[in-house]
Amino acid sequence: QVQLVESGGGLVQAGGSLRLSCGAAGRTFSWYDMGWFRQAPGKERAFVAAIRWSGGRTSYADSVKGRFTISRDNAKNTVYLQMNDLKPEDTAVYYCAAKSTMRNEYDYWGQGTQVTVSS
Known about the structure:
Blueprint: E1 2-7, E2 10-13, E3 18-26, E4 32-39, E5 46-51, E6 58-60, E7 68-73, E8 78-83, E9 92-100, E10 108-109, E11 113-118
Parallel strand pairs: 2-11
Antiparallel strand pairs: 1-3, 3-8, 4-5, 4-9, 5-6, 7-8, 9-10, 9-11
């Protein structure tokens, strides 16, 4: 089992920045690929960014490329999402997730942190 806890959400004006953190406890953090997802009101949960277990490969949704950066610190069991140039359409609950590098689907999810971007 892996327990994930997100933090760092809040209210920010358009054009501002936030950094989300996701702390992990349980099994060895470095075994897992990590991802960030978000769910806006009335919409399905959507992929935002992912990072491989080693930190050597990242991927992003087109809507956040060039504005968001995912990173991880395996020594601190933490994954981050740096969000710059935030837009009102980035408003959502943000979730971090973990999966075994051998699997396609994410097995573990945090409870989410709210990000609200005002125009």
